[in-house]
Amino acid sequence: MASNSHKPAHSTYPRELLHEFLLAAAATSPDRPAVVEACPTGELRTVTYRDLEQQVFGYAAELNTLGLAMGDRVIVESDNSASAIAMIIACSSLGLVFVPVSPQTPRKRLEAIIEAAVPVLHLRAAEGDREDLPESVGTGVFGPGTLEWHRRPVPRPRVRREAVSGDPAYIIFTSGTTGRPKGVVMSHRGVTSFFRGMLYHGIVEADSRVASTAPLSFDFSLLDIGLALGSGATVVPVPRDRLHWPRRFVRFLRDARVTHVNGAPSVWRTVLRHEPELLAELPVKGVLYSGEAFPLPELRHLQELLPQARIVNCYGSTESIAASFTDVPRPLPEETELMSIGFAHPGAEMVLIGEDGEPVLEEGGMGEIHLRSPSLFLGYWGDQEATDRALVRDPLSPRSGQLVFRTGDLARRGAHGELYFAGRADLQVKIQGNRVELGEIERKLLEFPHLAAAAVLLRETPEGEPVLSACVTMDSASRAFDKAQLRAHCAEELPEYMIPQEIHVLDKLPVTANGKVDRKALLERFTERDDETAPLEGQPA
What we know:
alpha/beta, Luciferase, domain 3, 28 strands, disordered N terminus
């Protein structure tokens, strides 16, 4: 095991390993709050940097008795909490690769992750419940200051002694196109390089309290942890049950004295609809959003309610955590139709490559974003074919051997070289022989008064006919809906073949655990309706 496993982060070693980076403030500000979290009783608990460091050392000492080998995978099943943060830092300090999993993960998905990752250990939070795991996997339960073994793993030979920055730090499993979870492997160097590039933007300060709304299994939660702890600030995990109740959510932010809120745009939707007055009373100084486009009417509303808040548009993907941080103009100009994702963070660069393989240099030109960065993932766990499709030779210098990340994201080039996200390449469809970006239709729909969210799908009817279907939700101001008016609105700018043939008003759009629209779930609902001739849930327009 690494000989420097229990060295504090303030040693003379460079902070290139994840645990060194996240615990650096323990040397300079040990009594500052590192985590503020809700207790089961509802009270708030403060964990200082000294407390967090001691909890890390305690976990690491217990883990070190198991005889695990460097590079072994450890599943950490927990919501975001001080104990979960301490556990992933402890794994890092021992050269173990942590695999974060949500307690809400369906059984079959967890089994697929276990089959793929071949972990030696499964650790769950004390409040969780998971039984009958494979006998090949050791099991334990952890909580504040406790770590108990239910089944110890079989000791393994220790071949290596020292962790290096290029070693894997964690694996995050995302939804794969094959229907099985896809493991994104990130190195210590990758994640700490990203953190340094992010901190350059000065998004938070040492006295900030950063509310994290993402589940631990989503890389956005690691962004929140790195942003807060890397700045010597405080991370405030928002309990999952508070996110679905706007009044409870806002009151938690108030009680925890949160100054910055990070999350997908969807976390704001119900608050803006139902509790705008309470939201306006919060002293929030900053909002960082990611995961999907923020509907411009909602974004303007948020600016009005939080006039002192700096709002930052974060663009990126799990394969690099994020790629850019762009301030939203205040006020947002009325003529704005699309938010810029700007330029890559310091130390990285985004380049547009066209279908001909050449860089896109002209204003308005569209291409696929290729990211060059030291914070790129190492590859997809156990899937070299998918890795080779994503990490490709640099199109600008293919003989150099340098690899860049082919993101699958399309963007347009602005007047000053800035980029404007234009949708996924895999959401580009052909209709009547014409190439169509579903995101372009969605943006036009969201300009319609009182439309809160929209998702456009290309589906086939039972007769095999391709149909553009729009699923939308309305804001609280109006439930009235006129299909003809919406289509006329689309016709102002879109050609006829891009106007949705079906429009359905739903109470809400299904979302994934990461807060993104779950298009697969929507398509399944259409399939069920076709099979059973049942109406789609909501109000057909």
